[in-house]
Design brief:
mainly alpha; 11 helices
Length: about 250
Protein backbone atom coordinates (compact mmCIF):
# COMPACT_ATOMS: atom_id res chain seq x y z
CA UNK A 1 0.00 0.00 0.00
CA UNK A 2 1.36 3.43 -0.96
CA UNK A 3 1.81 5.27 2.32
CA UNK A 4 1.61 8.62 0.53
CA UNK A 5 -2.02 7.91 -0.22
CA UNK A 6 -2.91 7.05 3.37
CA UNK A 7 -5.34 9.64 4.71
CA UNK A 8 -4.36 11.90 7.57
CA UNK A 9 -0.61 11.97 6.85
CA UNK A 10 1.38 15.09 6.10
CA UNK A 11 3.24 15.17 2.75
CA UNK A 12 6.50 13.27 2.94
CA UNK A 13 5.63 11.58 6.24
CA UNK A 14 5.58 7.79 6.44
CA UNK A 15 2.99 5.72 8.26
CA UNK A 16 5.62 4.55 10.76
CA UNK A 17 6.59 8.15 11.58
CA UNK A 18 2.94 9.09 12.07
CA UNK A 19 2.51 6.33 14.64
CA UNK A 20 5.80 6.95 16.50
CA UNK A 21 4.27 9.21 19.23
CA UNK A 22 1.77 6.47 20.12
CA UNK A 23 4.22 3.62 20.72
CA UNK A 24 3.59 3.72 24.49
CA UNK A 25 -0.15 3.39 23.95
CA UNK A 26 0.40 0.43 21.63
CA UNK A 27 2.51 -1.35 24.24
CA UNK A 28 -0.06 -0.68 26.97
CA UNK A 29 -2.91 -1.90 24.78
CA UNK A 30 -0.97 -5.02 23.78
CA UNK A 31 -0.39 -5.91 27.41
CA UNK A 32 -4.03 -5.10 28.21
CA UNK A 33 -5.30 -7.47 25.52
CA UNK A 34 -3.20 -10.38 26.78
CA UNK A 35 -4.03 -9.62 30.43
CA UNK A 36 -7.73 -9.53 29.51
CA UNK A 37 -7.63 -13.09 28.22
CA UNK A 38 -5.52 -14.26 31.18
CA UNK A 39 -8.03 -12.87 33.70
CA UNK A 40 -10.97 -14.46 31.87
CA UNK A 41 -9.15 -17.78 31.87
CA UNK A 42 -8.72 -17.40 35.63
CA UNK A 43 -12.46 -16.70 35.95
CA UNK A 44 -13.13 -19.86 33.96
CA UNK A 45 -10.99 -21.84 36.40
CA UNK A 46 -12.93 -20.45 39.38
CA UNK A 47 -16.18 -21.27 37.59
CA UNK A 48 -15.01 -24.83 36.97
CA UNK A 49 -14.05 -25.33 40.61
CA UNK A 50 -17.23 -23.77 41.98
CA UNK A 51 -19.86 -23.50 39.21
CA UNK A 52 -22.84 -21.31 40.15
CA UNK A 53 -26.41 -22.31 39.18
CA UNK A 54 -27.61 -20.88 35.89
CA UNK A 55 -31.28 -20.79 36.90
CA UNK A 56 -33.45 -20.81 39.99
CA UNK A 57 -33.52 -17.76 42.22
CA UNK A 58 -33.59 -19.58 45.55
CA UNK A 59 -30.93 -22.10 44.52
CA UNK A 60 -28.65 -19.29 43.32
CA UNK A 61 -29.01 -17.27 46.53
CA UNK A 62 -28.34 -20.33 48.67
CA UNK A 63 -25.29 -21.17 46.56
CA UNK A 64 -23.91 -17.64 46.97
CA UNK A 65 -24.46 -17.78 50.75
CA UNK A 66 -22.42 -20.98 50.92
CA UNK A 67 -19.74 -19.86 48.43
CA UNK A 68 -19.63 -16.09 48.78
CA UNK A 69 -15.88 -15.54 48.37
CA UNK A 70 -15.37 -17.59 45.19
CA UNK A 71 -18.61 -16.22 43.73
CA UNK A 72 -17.54 -12.61 44.29
CA UNK A 73 -14.06 -13.37 42.96
CA UNK A 74 -15.51 -14.95 39.81
CA UNK A 75 -17.85 -12.03 39.14
CA UNK A 76 -15.02 -9.54 39.56
CA UNK A 77 -12.85 -11.56 37.19
CA UNK A 78 -15.63 -11.59 34.59
CA UNK A 79 -16.62 -7.94 34.93
CA UNK A 80 -13.60 -5.81 35.95
CA UNK A 81 -11.37 -6.78 32.97
CA UNK A 82 -13.97 -5.10 30.73
CA UNK A 83 -11.91 -1.91 30.97
CA UNK A 84 -9.02 -3.60 29.15
CA UNK A 85 -10.76 -3.98 25.74
CA UNK A 86 -11.62 -0.26 25.92
CA UNK A 87 -7.89 0.50 26.06
CA UNK A 88 -7.29 -1.92 23.20
CA UNK A 89 -9.90 -0.38 20.91
CA UNK A 90 -8.62 3.11 21.70
CA UNK A 91 -5.18 2.04 20.53
CA UNK A 92 -6.66 0.37 17.45
CA UNK A 93 -8.39 3.61 16.51
CA UNK A 94 -5.10 5.47 16.67
CA UNK A 95 -3.31 2.74 14.72
CA UNK A 96 -5.98 2.41 12.04
CA UNK A 97 -7.03 6.08 11.76
CA UNK A 98 -4.44 6.89 9.06
CA UNK A 99 -6.17 4.27 6.89
CA UNK A 100 -9.51 6.05 7.19
CA UNK A 101 -10.51 8.03 10.24
CA UNK A 102 -14.28 7.73 9.81
CA UNK A 103 -14.29 3.97 9.32
CA UNK A 104 -11.78 3.45 12.14
CA UNK A 105 -13.81 5.64 14.52
CA UNK A 106 -17.14 3.93 13.80
CA UNK A 107 -15.61 0.44 14.04
CA UNK A 108 -13.75 0.99 17.32
CA UNK A 109 -16.66 2.80 19.00
CA UNK A 110 -19.07 -0.01 18.09
CA UNK A 111 -16.55 -2.61 19.30
CA UNK A 112 -15.60 -0.85 22.53
CA UNK A 113 -19.01 0.43 23.65
CA UNK A 114 -20.35 -2.93 24.96
CA UNK A 115 -17.28 -3.35 27.18
CA UNK A 116 -17.69 0.15 28.60
CA UNK A 117 -21.38 -0.55 29.29
CA UNK A 118 -20.41 -3.71 31.16
CA UNK A 119 -18.63 -1.55 33.72
CA UNK A 120 -21.72 0.64 34.12
CA UNK A 121 -24.01 -2.39 34.58
CA UNK A 122 -21.89 -4.96 36.47
CA UNK A 123 -23.44 -8.25 35.36
CA UNK A 124 -22.07 -11.29 33.59
CA UNK A 125 -23.57 -14.30 31.88
CA UNK A 126 -22.61 -16.27 35.00
CA UNK A 127 -24.22 -14.00 37.57
CA UNK A 128 -24.21 -10.54 39.07
CA UNK A 129 -22.73 -8.78 42.07
CA UNK A 130 -26.26 -7.58 42.86
CA UNK A 131 -27.14 -11.17 43.72
CA UNK A 132 -24.68 -11.07 46.64
CA UNK A 133 -26.80 -8.44 48.37
CA UNK A 134 -29.99 -10.40 47.68
CA UNK A 135 -28.33 -13.53 49.06
CA UNK A 136 -27.52 -11.76 52.32
CA UNK A 137 -31.10 -10.56 52.63
CA UNK A 138 -32.42 -13.99 51.71
CA UNK A 139 -30.41 -15.65 54.49
CA UNK A 140 -31.47 -13.00 57.00
CA UNK A 141 -35.19 -13.32 56.11
CA UNK A 142 -37.35 -14.65 58.94
CA UNK A 143 -40.18 -16.13 56.91
CA UNK A 144 -40.75 -18.11 53.74
CA UNK A 145 -42.68 -15.16 52.32
CA UNK A 146 -39.73 -12.81 52.73
CA UNK A 147 -37.36 -15.34 51.22
CA UNK A 148 -39.75 -15.74 48.30
CA UNK A 149 -39.54 -12.00 47.57
CA UNK A 150 -35.75 -12.09 47.35
CA UNK A 151 -35.79 -15.33 45.34
CA UNK A 152 -38.17 -13.73 42.83
CA UNK A 153 -35.91 -10.67 42.52
CA UNK A 154 -32.94 -12.95 41.92
CA UNK A 155 -34.85 -14.89 39.28
CA UNK A 156 -35.56 -11.63 37.45
CA UNK A 157 -31.85 -10.74 37.40
CA UNK A 158 -30.93 -14.23 36.18
CA UNK A 159 -33.54 -14.06 33.43
CA UNK A 160 -32.24 -10.68 32.29
CA UNK A 161 -28.66 -11.96 32.22
CA UNK A 162 -29.70 -14.93 30.09
CA UNK A 163 -31.51 -12.77 27.52
CA UNK A 164 -29.58 -11.81 24.35
CA UNK A 165 -29.14 -8.04 24.11
CA UNK A 166 -28.23 -5.48 21.47
CA UNK A 167 -25.07 -4.70 23.45
CA UNK A 168 -24.02 -8.33 23.12
CA UNK A 169 -24.41 -8.14 19.35
CA UNK A 170 -22.47 -4.88 19.09
CA UNK A 171 -19.18 -6.44 20.17
CA UNK A 172 -18.87 -9.00 17.32
CA UNK A 173 -20.20 -6.46 14.83
CA UNK A 174 -17.55 -4.01 15.98
CA UNK A 175 -14.80 -6.63 15.77
CA UNK A 176 -15.92 -7.43 12.22
CA UNK A 177 -15.80 -3.73 11.26
CA UNK A 178 -12.41 -3.21 12.92
CA UNK A 179 -11.01 -6.23 11.10
CA UNK A 180 -12.37 -4.96 7.78
CA UNK A 181 -10.33 -1.78 8.29
CA UNK A 182 -7.29 -3.90 9.25
CA UNK A 183 -7.32 -5.47 5.79
CA UNK A 184 -6.06 -2.14 4.44
CA UNK A 185 -2.79 -2.41 6.37
CA UNK A 186 -0.95 -1.78 9.67
CA UNK A 187 -1.89 -5.18 11.16
CA UNK A 188 -1.03 -8.60 9.69
CA UNK A 189 -3.73 -9.76 7.29
CA UNK A 190 -4.09 -13.07 9.14
CA UNK A 191 -5.19 -11.10 12.23
CA UNK A 192 -7.73 -9.22 10.12
CA UNK A 193 -9.15 -12.43 8.66
CA UNK A 194 -9.29 -13.97 12.14
CA UNK A 195 -11.27 -10.94 13.29
CA UNK A 196 -13.69 -11.22 10.37
CA UNK A 197 -14.32 -14.87 11.22
CA UNK A 198 -14.70 -14.03 14.91
CA UNK A 199 -17.15 -11.22 14.24
CA UNK A 200 -19.27 -13.25 11.84
CA UNK A 201 -19.48 -16.24 14.16
CA UNK A 202 -20.10 -13.92 17.10
CA UNK A 203 -23.21 -12.40 15.55
CA UNK A 204 -24.66 -15.85 14.90
CA UNK A 205 -23.63 -17.08 18.36
CA UNK A 206 -25.19 -14.14 20.21
CA UNK A 207 -28.44 -14.52 18.27
CA UNK A 208 -28.56 -18.29 18.92
CA UNK A 209 -26.87 -18.20 22.30
CA UNK A 210 -29.24 -20.59 24.04
CA UNK A 211 -30.66 -22.39 21.02
CA UNK A 212 -27.18 -23.48 19.85
CA UNK A 213 -24.67 -22.95 22.70
CA UNK A 214 -21.93 -24.84 20.84
CA UNK A 215 -21.59 -21.84 18.51
CA UNK A 216 -21.08 -19.58 21.53
CA UNK A 217 -18.21 -21.70 22.82
CA UNK A 218 -16.57 -21.53 19.40
CA UNK A 219 -17.05 -17.77 19.33
CA UNK A 220 -15.51 -17.44 22.79
CA UNK A 221 -12.38 -19.32 21.74
CA UNK A 222 -12.00 -17.27 18.55
CA UNK A 223 -12.60 -14.06 20.50
CA UNK A 224 -9.81 -14.84 22.95
CA UNK A 225 -7.49 -15.87 20.10
CA UNK A 226 -8.24 -12.58 18.32
CA UNK A 227 -7.50 -10.50 21.42
CA UNK A 228 -4.17 -12.26 21.88
CA UNK A 229 -3.29 -11.91 18.19
CA UNK A 230 -4.09 -8.19 18.20
CA UNK A 231 -2.22 -7.69 21.47
CA UNK A 232 0.90 -9.40 20.13
CA UNK A 233 0.63 -7.42 16.89
CA UNK A 234 0.49 -4.13 18.81
CA UNK A 235 3.48 -5.15 20.93
CA UNK A 236 5.41 -5.99 17.76
CA UNK A 237 4.35 -2.81 15.98
CA UNK A 238 7.56 -0.80 15.66
CA UNK A 239 6.81 2.65 14.28
CA UNK A 240 9.85 4.55 13.13
CA UNK A 241 10.85 7.85 14.73
CA UNK A 242 10.51 11.09 12.74
CA UNK A 243 13.70 12.10 10.95
CA UNK A 244 15.51 15.14 12.27
CA UNK A 245 13.34 17.86 13.75
CA UNK A 246 10.40 17.29 11.47
CA UNK A 247 7.03 18.79 12.25
CA UNK A 248 4.38 16.60 13.91
CA UNK A 249 3.65 13.69 11.61
CA UNK A 250 -0.09 13.70 11.86
CA UNK A 251 -3.01 15.61 13.26
CA UNK A 252 -3.47 12.66 15.57
CA UNK A 253 -0.15 13.24 17.33
CA UNK A 254 -0.60 13.91 21.06
Amino acid sequence: MDERRVSGLAPGVSLGEAQWPWRGLYRSAGVAAILFVALLLLALVVDFVSPPPVDGGAATLEFIAANKEPYIAEQILWILPGILPVILFLALFVALAPLGRSSALVATVVAGLPWALLLAVPVSSRGSLSLVYLSDRYVAARSAGERGVFATAAEAIIAENNTPTIAGLLSPVGIFLVSAVMLKGVMPRVVAWLGLATGALGVVSEALRFAAPEFYWGYGLLLWAWFIAVGVSLLRLQPGPPEGNAAPASKLSP
